[in-house]
Write a structure and sequence with these properties.
This protein is α/β, with parallel strands linked by helices and 323 residues long. It has helices spanning 11-21, 34-40, 58-66, 71-75, 85-97, 111-119, 134-145, 156-172, 187-199, 215-222, 247-254, 263-276, 283-293, 315-318, and strands at 30-31, 43-48, 78-81, 101-106, 123-127, 148-149, 178-182, 204-210, 257-261, 303-308. A 6-stranded mixed β-sheet has the order 1-2-10-7-8-9, sandwiched between helices. Strands 5-4-3-6 form a 4-stranded parallel β-sheet, with helices on both faces. The longest helix is centred in the middle third of the chain and has 17 residues, at 156-172.
């Protein structure tokens, strides 16, 4: 299976990524809840990337991409822009590989993610998300420092690395009817879709976004990438204005649909997972749970695998959930 005209990303790339990150990334657990099953009328399996190193799936793709750089290029260091999870994935990967890392981080990034990124040894350069294009800014920093940019999603090795989460999920639960994941730039969603279709061609794949941050849904419906205003959603990990150049054609080809939930739906799902399943997850990770709880997944999808993208919730938000 080959997707897109600009870059060939195949199921073999995901399998190769699994070998590259083996022994470095965690094989994260899959949890179920009888209460969630009763509530939704489905069998729901949560692949909890909140238990991944750095607390999110992003470490998979970051390590796969950085570890493949030519040694001389890698030694000069890497640059990335991120609101937090990609930042931590790049920072830890760089630390493990013994190279410097600079993270271009928006000023409104959750403090817990900022502190964790610094803890992995990365240098942080801040920018205003509203006034500055983060993608362009990271390239400016990279040119000044002679470093290599590691994109958050538009990179074949990033995409393939993220897909390894679904390899693990379907190895643990091989008879799923559907895979559901949150959509930001699309790296996780694209990689998971390639992995899912490679392992089980008949499986149905859905992305989920929040209302107001539904750039992929709008692009999906229009048949081309659209750009939306800066989204104010509580799910900071999916605050993207347009889907990725490489990821969007993959999603167009392999996703059945992109579902949309509200921030209130996400908060309800967040409270449920924390209180009933005793799992600490972040709002972006609760987005696909919200879609299943709201009954948005089509009939016929009885056994559903959900990718919980991460668990790096801002403690300030956590303290207000039951206010």
């Amino acid at each position: 299976m080959t997707i897109g005209e600009q870059v060939a990303i195949t199921f073999d790339d995901v399998l190769d990524a699994a070998e590259q990150v083996k022994g470095v990334t965690n094989v994260t657990p899959v949890f179920t809840s009888r209460t969630l099953n009763d509530l939704t009328g489905r069998e729901v399996f949560l692949k909890c990337e909140s238990f991944q190193r750095t607390g999110a799936f992003k470490f998979r793709g970051a390590y796969n991409a950085i570890s493949r750089l030519d040694p001389d290029v890698r030694a000069a260091g890497v640059v990335a822009y991120s609101s937090g999870n990609h930042a931590q994935g790049v920072a830890l990967s760089a630390k493990l590989l013994g190279i410097p890392a600079i993270i271009c981080m928006p000023t409104d990034a959750p403090k817990v993610k900022e502190h964790a990124t610094r803890g992995y040894g990365a240098e942080i350069v801040f920018f205003d998300r509203i006034a500055v294009d983060g993608e362009a800014f990271q390239y400016e920093v990279a040119r000044e420092r002679g470093m290599t940019v590691i994109p958050p999603y538009d990179n074949r090795h990033i995409i393939a690395g993220q897909g390894t989460a679904v390899l693990e999920l379907l190895s643990a639960e091989p008879n799923l009817d559907a895979i559901i994941a949150p959509v930001g730039g699309g790296g996780l969603m694209a990689g998971c879709a390639i992995a899912a279709k490679g392992m089980a061609p008949r499986i149905r794949v859905f992305g989920v976004e929040t209302l107001g941050a539904d750039d992929t849904k709008q692009s999906f419906d229009k048949g081309e990438r659209v750009t939306i205003p800066p989204p104010p959603t509580i799910a900071d990990g999916i605050r993207l204005r347009t889907p990725g150049d490489l990821t969007f054609p993959i999603m167009q080809s392999l996703l059945e649909d992109v579902l949309v939930v509200t921030d209130d739906d996400v908060l309800d799902a967040l409270r449920f997972v924390i209180t009933r399943m005793k799992l600490v997850i972040e709002p972006s990770g609760a987005v696909p749970v919200a879609a299943v709880m709201k009954g948005l997944v089509p009939d016929g999808c009885q056994r559903i695998g959900i990718i919980i993208s991460g668990g790096n919730i801002d403690p300030a938000l956590l303290s207000t959930l039951w206010a």
